[in-house]
Queue: 3 jobs
Job 1
Amino acid sequence: MLYLKLDLQYFAADEKTEKATPKKRQDTRKKGQVPKSQDVNTGFLLLLVFGALFLLGAPMKATMTGMYEHAFQEYIHWDLTENHVHTIFTEMTWEISKVVAPIMGVAIIAGVTSNLIQVGVMFTGEPLKMDLKKLDPIKGAKKIFSARAIVELVKSLLKITMVGSITFAIIWVNKDQMMMMSQKSIEGALSFFGTITIIMGLASALALLVLSVLDYTYQRYDHEKNIRMSKKDIKDEYKNIEGDPQIKAKIKEKQRQMSASRMMSEVPEADVVITNPTHFAIAIKYDESKSEAPIVVAKGVDFIAQKIKEIAKANDVITVENRPLARALYKNSELDHPIEEQYFQAVAEILAYVYQLEKKM
């Protein structure tokens, strides 16, 4: 029963039920693991591209028709020489660039913007590193039949259904006009089909954006689930950040010892030691060239207080008993700092008494 209880406690501690800590999130982000929906990129890209086509359609059409007119009116009469081919290629490339460049620019802006909206600014090379574990066929099979794969399949079917339904509906509504395009001019037919294409693109983009909201919500949920931590993970992370508590305790103890050793070395230079007399001891030094007020060079209670008094006695430093002043100075004064103004008079009287006593001695 004892072993069973210990095993249950171990599994409970190792179960990933806790939210990820900020450090875990930061480390995961450095590896390129962030919640991201490709549908947001696709929907945003389609929306901006078809929007650009809607706004720039007329200039693009004028450029393309002008290019064809120029080709069949002038280029067709040129002799086939090296210079003429170079000229035709250069001019055609320039005209095509004027048509394609704005759309490519909008596509790049859409891609960058959609990624910034989702993950912000992030540069990492972790996903590009070679990882032989990705070639494991067993893990690959598990991914194929995992819950995530099923969600992706359902999502793909839903996208195909939505886009197909929207496209079919728009074509069905405009089927009568399409049948009459044979009676229209080429320019009118191009204008009609261009408008229909842009409407289908914009409608599909909006549908994908609506779907992307649901997909992004799921991606965030799945990401949060994957980066969950166990209580043991949180404790281990805390130890790595803050250090082992036992080591920290040893370091603090060593620092206290060093501080006490340095403090004791200042006692022989003190002018007076004010005591409780048994529990508190405060060593005071007044050096007019360094400070306008007396400075506390050492203080302590119980064992440390006894050590201060022993060192003071061994170095002929006068000890004065003043219970309330000793308690107040210990509580309200810092090492190597001047005493507070409210204790000036009391300490000045003690120093005056010590200086008179030293003169007599």
Job 2
Amino acid sequence: MPMRVAIASMFAIGLAAGGAAHAHAATLRGATVIASGTVRLSDLFADLEPGQDRPLGPGPAPGASIQVGGRQLLAIADEYGVDWLDQSPSATATITRAGRVLDQDYFAGLVRQNLPDLGDGPVSIELRDFHPIIVAPDDKKPIVLSDIKWDQRSGWFSATAYRGQPTGDITRDSFLLTGVIHATRRLLVYAHALPAGSVLSASDAQMDDSYAGHITSKAFTNEADIDGMTLTRGVVAGAPILDQDLQRTVLMHKGDPAVITFTAPGVHLTATGRALEDGGAGQYVHILNLSSNMIVTGRVISASEIEVAAGSNPVPSDSNALRRLTSARGRSRADLSLR
């Protein structure tokens, strides 16, 4: 029942007037915050006589306010025998009911409580078309969920939410709660937007401990793995760093001269060579040893150095070997590398 209607009803049924005017003067409260759902006389007037306080009617909804105008205040003071200082028909009193906001975090936690199949692992619960609601601060169970449905494959869920303390308005007392649940993971994301062709360094990445987006290829978790890689497309801040968007930055180009090094316990050998294909840092490529005219496979150390691992088998640089090598360049780097 609205405040004005409730007060008018009290006048109509002739509630007991509090007696004649009291010698003790009360003062008007201009603004009052109440915790309960009932407005009392002391919410409008301070310094009442002992035993003079009494309930007047229902208060506003949690978080809402009502205003009581001067004529109503005069009528209430007269009805209950309140000797009110500075009485005026232009006076107003505002009564606000305290409220607690139930935000997305609250409802996400409630969904998790009601879906034990989610387990204890990290998840992200994203609500769709969500609007916060306000409830009484002392409401220990303000929302109850029912009819919960969850498609584990798509992550989509829905549930009906009911207020624990109904307001009487069916459009506010229940509503449909929907959203998507994603498993989260710890991975590197871009610290800022970058254009295609950028060469990455550690400063371009940051760790996201609870990334919940969709991953389409291998994601990185170690900054050292992306250092020196080149972007094949433009990216935005916060996007995951994926293998499909990176390529090795070419340090050594086909035809470049290079020093071939071989190191073993007690042995360190060097030779002059020429790269037979492009290669990025740490990548294995074929190189022609100009001294022995043999083709070896080594790891790119820098733009001018190839390191040959122990156990690498050189092959003669005859026409057949060179032809096989030429045809192999059309295949992936994995086919050309020693793993």
Job 3
Amino acid sequence: MFIRTERLFLRPAWEEDAPALTRAIAHESVAHMLARVSWPYEEEDALAWIGAPRDPSLPSLLITIPDDGGTIIGGCGLHAADSDGPAEVGYWITPAAQGQGYAREALSGLLAIARMAGHRTLRGRHMVDNPGSGRVLTAVGFRPTGGTGSLPSLARAAAISTLEYEADLAGGEPAQVPPTAWVTPDAYIASINAAA
């Protein structure tokens, strides 16, 4: 799946993305806020993630800036919950691109994809020491459930306490979702070449 938001392009990862993906995610501050990312993070880890089998209803996408030659600035996706229940969202932004609203914009685009894939409800969680992630979730329409839990963090080699959120996608698009447009791979490549 490919989707264009106002400033971003969300797309699948390809094997040739491994070096740039590694540079974007291989920051201790990023790895420590994610459950499934090891630290240190190496190019072999990126290749393993890129090559992992995917359920089409649970896309994992790179967040890129097409006007900057397709620079990878993060990732977002859906994954199966660790228990019965709705799919969960996940996302990250490389440190140099944080604080510019990219996570919120990418997550809004991901919600549009999730809705088109037939998801009616999504779950979100963040580690208690990452309150900024909670602000991103609420900005795109997630509501705190009051639930808590924990996530095993590979990077920290420990279980970290989490706060839980939920979004209802069945009631129509949240007001925060910006206009999006589906983009073909050829159109994406043309936009990258035009920016170069």
